[in-house]
Specification:
Length: 595
């Protein structure tokens, strides 16, 4: 995955991330404005609490006002305390929907982008790591919005108001000590937080690596058991967790250093102010009520100062977490609709490969100027040994990749000029390796056309020769197939793939080794279903077993990425070329199995 960080400074990157959030926030600007107004009232009420407390103390010090005035001030004091809580909760209630909806929309955008990325990206990805990046990033969005909108700005506002009251009520020296404390505290917090960010980054990397290892191991549970590698997997997972533990400890130790330093700075400023205030009370320069107000203000300043330190640290952590998520959004789309892409029109759908060359890597050429045609409504097969490039042809037709040269046509149109949704909607695929969702049998069959009714699902199951399996399942259509369909056999999973294609009912069908997981008896049973499904459809059969394509209208033999022979089954046998050799080998193998 391409990293988000470039030659820009950390500050520029942080600003860039925040700017990318603004379009999401702008949709909720009215709610945010109302929440900010409520927050301003809450902060004003909070700042006036020490002023009310000062007046109460001074009134209590005056015997003539002992009964009337303090009662009114006490009621005002209580009202201010309640107003602070009231407006803060109003803020939370108003802003909650904006924050959660922004998080949801951004997470959905990343999820959608992941599905739009090419097969090349998904073959290189580490599922566990991507999952953790998405999880941490989405969780950070909501926290960051709350920190920036309702913590940083309001806290700075509160600090300014308090400093203004101190300036009007006390000597300049009180204000200078307060401002100096705030500045030193801020500089120290920023410097130390920047220094310790590297531990957070390394901790996230170790966490993603550990999650990747865990998911990879669990997905390959059977393989782990086959080779008795439980201890090896434990050690591999533990090694990543140990890295995470080491970086996490460093992060916590550096956090302790940050907190201790912040405490020293705040305590120093508070002590200096209290010494000056006590001296002023002794000399009669200020009243006891003003001393109490000053102390209350300082306590009120210490809380947001500590909070600002925590906020700044958490904001940096959020930005680090979000950077990986936005890194996914920054991945360029290799395959996407062009500006003039059009839908595939209904009608006949012949397929043409015209001098198509393709390579997954520059040093590994897969196809060399491959040309062939699948006439509309006909059944054409591409056969050849493993590694000859047969499945690559299916992936190119489905536009998982773009050819290096040449062109692919369907319905007379170059597929790179067609809308992807329209193109892929017209093609049904029965893949060689059918991976199922961890859901019910009905869900997996109906996935070919979401919303299909139970009657349609049962009909597709029957045509795919799955009725026998369905009858043996206690829960019927509601049977859970397990992670990746592990509760079903390979042949059963492949029949589910066939049922999906049946229920999708596409005009173009790709059978990519569609019977490779079936035994000979099951193959014969399912072959008739496939013949029925492919009848009157433009069908491309990718096969290694030649016995499955003898009825094809035309067969192309692919070897080392080149078409070396073509013709009907009998013609190719009579030519005694490579097809004949493959047929002879497979027939001998079949005879040995029957013996």
């Amino acid at each position: 995955m391409r990293p988000l960080r470039t030659e820009m400074s950390d500050e520029n990157i942080d600003l860039r991330l925040i700017k990318r959030l603004l379009p999401y926030l702008w949709k909720h600007r009215i709610r945010i404005a109302i929440a900010l107004i409520a927050l301003i009232f809450a902060k004003l009420a909070n700042v006036l609490v020490p002023v009310a407390l000062k007046n109460i103390v001074d009134a209590l010090d005056d015997p003539s006002e002992l009964l009337v005035v303090p009662l009114g001030l006490l009621l005002a004091y209580g009202a201010l305390r309640f107003s602070t809580t009231l407006f803060q909760e109003l803020r939370n209630a108003v802003f909650a929907r904006a924050a959660q909806r922004t998080t949801r929309q951004l997470t959905l955008d990343v999820f959608k982008h992941l599905h739009e990325l090419s097969m090349r990206f998904h073959l290189d990805r580490q599922t566990g790591g991507v999952s953790r990046d998405l999880e941490r990033g989405s969780q950070s969005v909501s926290r960051l919005l709350n920190y920036l909108t309702f913590s940083v700005i309001p806290t700075l506002f509160e600090l300014l108001v308090v400093c203004g009251i101190l300036f009007m009520s006390f000597e300049v020296s009180f204000v200078l000590i307060t401002i100096t404390t705030i500045v030193v505290y801020g500089v120290y917090t920023i410097k130390v937080t920047q220094w310790r960010l590297k531990y957070r980054i390394e901790m996230n990397k170790a966490d993603s690596a550990a999650n990747t290892a865990a998911i990879d191991s669990l997905l390959n549970y059977e393989t782990v058991k086959y080779f008795g590698n439980e201890v090896y997997e434990f050690d591999r997972y533990n090694s990543h967790l140990m890295e995470w533990e080491a970086e996490s400890v460093k992060s916590q130790l550096s956090l302790a250093l940050l907190n201790v330093g912040q405490g020293v700075i705040v305590a120093g400023g508070l002590i200096a102010l209290m010494i000056m205030a006590a001296s002023s009370v002794a000399s009669g320069a200020i009243t006891i009520g003003e001393f109490v107000m000053l102390n209350a203000f300082m306590i009120q300043l210490v809380i947001p100062l500590n909070f600002l330190g925590t906020i700044f640290r958490e904001i940096k952590h959020c930005l680090v977490d979000m950077a990986r998520m936005f890194g996914i959004l920054d991945e360029a789309l290799e395959i996407e609709d062009g500006p003039d892409a059009k839908p595939l029109e209904s009608g006949e759908y012949p397929i043409v490969f015209d001098k198509v060359s393709f390579s997954y890597r520059p040093d590994r050429q897969i196809l060399h100027e491959v040309s062939f045609e699948v006439p509309a409504g006909k059944r054409v097969a591409v056969v050849g040994p493993s590694g000859s490039g047969k499945s690559t042809i299916a992936r190119l037709l489905f536009r998982f990749y773009q050819p290096d040269s040449g062109a692919v046509f369907i319905g007379g149109e170059p597929i790179d000029q067609l809308q992807l949704k329209s193109l892929r909607g017209a093609i049904g695929v029965v893949p060689q390796d059918c991976v199922l969702f961890n859901d019910t049998l009905a869900y997996n069959v109906a996935y070919g056309r979401p919303g299909a009714g139970e009657a349609e699902v049962l009909k597709a199951i029957d045509r795919a020769n799955l009725s026998g399996l369905l009858a043996r399942l206690p829960d019927g259509l509601k049977t859970q197939v397990g992670e990746r369909g592990l509760k079903l056999s390979g042949g059963e999973k492949q029949r589910v793939a066939i049922a999906r294609a049946i229920i999708k009912d596409p005009p173009v069908l790709i059978l990519d080794e569609a019977t490779s997981s079936l035994d000979s008896i099951s193959e014969q049973a399912i072959q008739s279903a496939l013949d029925s499904v492919s009848r009157r459809r433009t069908t491309l059969v990718i096969a290694h077993r030649l016995s499955t394509v003898i009825d094809a209208d035309k067969i192309y033999v692919l070897d080392a990425g080149k078409i070396v022979e073509s013709g009907a089954h009998e013609d190719l046998l009579a030519a005694r070329g490579q097809y004949h050799q493959l047929w002879k080998i497979q027939q001998e193998q079949a005879e040995k199995v029957t013996e």
